[in-house]
Each structure stands twice: as structure tokens, then as C-alpha cells.
Amino acid sequence: MSVVVLLSLAHAGLLDSLDEPSRHLAGCQQAAADAESVDPQRAVGVWEACLGEADRLGYAELLPGLRAQVAVEKAWAAAAPRFVTDPHHAAMEVLAVAARWSTADLPTDLVTRTFRGWMETDEGRAYVEDVRTVSVTWEGGPDPRVDEVLRKAVQDVGLKWVSPGDPAADTLIAAHLEVSHDAGAASAQGQLVVTRTGLVFDKVRVRARDATLKGFTVSASAESPTAAEADAASLKVSAEAAARTLLHRVLGVLFKG
After folding, report:
1. 97, 76 contact by CB (below 8 A)
2. Is 190 left (phi over 0), alpha (psi -120 to 50) or beta?
3. Rounded (5°) CA angle 44-53-93
4. The CA-based dihedral angle spanning residues 92, 96, 98, 100, taken in that order and rounded to the nearest 10 degrees
5. pLDDT in tens, 187-217
6. For residues 131 and 168, what is the distance between their CA atoms, to the nearest angstrom?
7. 9 pLDDT exceeds 80?
8. CB neighbours of 124 closer than 8 A, spacing ≥ 6?
9. Whole-Å CA distances, 6 to 23, 110, 136, 152, 171
């Protein structure tokens, strides 16, 4: 599986540079965020309409993620009244639905937000104890800069991070990095640089569940006046997307059966 995230640091309008499916999705994300702040059930309606329109327009690449988003939004709306009184079981209901779509690329952070909240409960932490701690072994050896960015992203979604070889590691990842540079558009600052960073998780193994998951690639592109700035931006975005994707995969194992 390959997930592609686009990021521009240029001062041109980002929406104008997106293709039609991406522009459609960006509009849905904004409308759903506005609706969710009022009533979770309204957000369900927004995503259902977004899915229907994407289907009508032939945006096939968006459909799996949108179907997953509708399912998770429905579960969230149903469980929302109980997040105060019974956050453990409310979160489990939402995340169990998300786990059925563990290979889909959801267009919001609803799963991540729910998981982070769950990790604030004793019951939630106990439930995920044997899958939560992640270690990454890099092909060609570790790169401290990449490790630091990915570590932060992994911890931000609610997982834990340890060094390779640590006996506390539950989820073991073999990975490598792919980076390319190209000339971007001309700007007032001069010729822009485009960096594309791909984080390739070649294999993901969850030891306690005796599960080996299919690998995946997450790519991000950034454009900036300097290569260093474009490198840092594309790495940060790809790491954040990879951490979200990893969380979804782990949930698929956690709630299997």
C-alpha cells in the first residue's frame, strides 16, 4: 500500500495546486470539521454526502477511505454521549469499527484522537499493553534525525517507542527511507526545491499476536527555497502519516476476531 501526502511551503495557493479528487476531499474535511464542532451526527451527514459525490464523480481512489470514515463517524456519533461516563467502552466501540478498515486511509484524525483518549484510561492501557510499544530497525543502520522525527510522530498517536533490540518492544518494524530532490517553481526567493520523502515499512510484526503485516509506504512532497527546509517538512509529514497508518494496522490486529 502506498499513501501519498502533498505539502507545499511555497506562498502560492495550496488548494489551487491540488487535483480534483484532492480538492474535493479538502472541502469535505473542512465542512466535516465545522459540522463536528456542532453535532457529531452532522459530521456523519457530511461524510455520507462526500462519499456519494466522490462515487458520482468517479474518484475511485477516495472511496475506501471515505467508506471507512463514514463507518467510524457513525460509531463515534453513537458512542459520543458515553465518553464522559464510560470512556473505555465508548472508545472500544469506535476503535473496533476502525479496525475493520485497518488498511484504509482515513481522511481525518478521528481514530488517532479516540485512541489517545483511550490511552488516558487504565483499562485502555491494559488492553493494548502487548501491542503498544514500537521499535524500528532501519536498513543501512539508524539515522538519529529520522528516528527522532518518527519517534515523536509515533508517540503523538498514542503508541510508545523503544530502540531496536529492547525486550519491551511489542511491534517490530523493518524500514527504509527513500528521498529524492527536484527543481520546483521559480519564486521571489529563487528556484524552489522539491523534496519527496518516502517512509517504507517493509515489514510490521506484532510479536504477542504472532502477526506479520503487509508493509506499506507513505510519501510526502514539500517545496521550499532551501533543500534543508523541504527535507525537514516532507519528513515530518510523511512520519506523521506513517504513524497514523501504523496505528490503524495495529488496531486491526488488536481487535481481530
Report:
1. no
2. left
3. 25
4. 180
5. 666 678 889 999 999 999 999 999 999 999 9
6. 10
7. no
8. 87, 88, 91, 92, 118
9. 12, 20, 24, 20, 28
Taking alpha carbons only, the member of 129, 136, 171 closest to residue 151 is 136
Residue 21 grid cell: 479528487
Task: Confirm if 235 and 146 have CB atoms less than 8 A apart.
Answer: yes
Question: For the residues 164-190, what does the mean pLDDT come to?
Answer: 86
- Cell numbers for 31, please give them: 465542512
Query: What are residue 167's phi and psi, to 5 degrees?
Result: -65, -15
Among the listed residues 118, 51, 106, the one whose alpha carbon sits nearest the alpha carbon of residue 79: 118
The single-letter code of the amino acid at 78 is A
140: left (phi over 0), alpha (psi -120 to 50) or beta: left
What average pLDDT does the chain have?
Answer: 89
How far apart are the C-alpha atoms of 224 and 64, rounded to whole Å?
Answer: 32
β partners of residue 180: 196
When mean pLDDT is compared across 14-18, 80-84, 123-127, 187-191, the lowest value belongs to 14-18
What does the block give as the cell for 198? 518516502
Helix residue ranges, H only, 100-138: 110-118, 122-127
